[in-house]
Each structure stands twice: as structure tokens, then as C-alpha cells.
Specification:
141 residues, putative 2-phosphosulfolactate phosphatase, 2 domains, two-stranded antiparallel ribbon, 48% helix
Length: 141
Amino acid sequence: MLGFVNMERVVNYFNELNEDFIILCAGKSGEFSLEDTVCAGMLVSRLRKLGGKNKYKLTDSSRGAAKLYSAYKNDLNKMMNDSEHGQYLVSLGFGDDLAACAETDKYNILPVLRNGVIKSIEAFASDPKLTMKKVTQKNAG
């Protein structure tokens, strides 16, 4: 699970993974979400900076997310306030929480959802009952 607050940990994990992966934005009710896309764009930008521009094959959506992140990278709090959900939170009186949501690299943890349980990736490594099954295209459906 990725957020601005644990971005560095996630970037380092994916950079060391040496496997294909997909970045999937949660969005809101199946719709585009500004904050999710900017967060994904930050991930793409940092991975390309760390691993080199040729290490990752980018889709148009990942390129677009990186461009959108570039537009907001100097003021993520503004982006949070510009977003539809951010404006909704402000209307409920939670506007002060947006600054906390826009903080970057505050936590060095990688939470993972496996078998309906959320734990740090390190906690799963020590629990063989909660190992992740690798899905391949052959057995995906």
C-alpha cells in the first residue's frame, strides 16, 4: 500500500524487486482521483530517477501521472485542496488533515494486504500461513 507518507520505502522495494509490477490507483467509486494519480506519478518519477529512465517501461497513463505529479510536486498540500475529495473533507471540517496527507517519506513501512490481513511486509515474511501467491497470466483467469 502506497501513500505519500511511505513513498521512499515503496520506491526502494519496487526498485529492488526486479519483477514486473502494475501501479493501480484506487480512485473513488471507479472514477479518476487526483490525489491517487499524483501519488502514482511521484512513484513513477522517483523510480525513474533511482533506477534510470530505461529500467521501466511506461504506459501512457504512467507518463500522464508523472506529468501531473510534476505540476504539483512543489505543493502537494495545494493538490490535496484542489482535489474533489480534499474539498469534500474541507466541507466536513477536516481541512487541517490534508497537510498530514500531503507529508512525504514520514514512515519507513510497507503495509501489504494478503489473505484479508494487513501487516508490514516484514511481518508476513515470518508467517508462512500468510504467504503471497504469485499470479501469472496462465492461472489468472
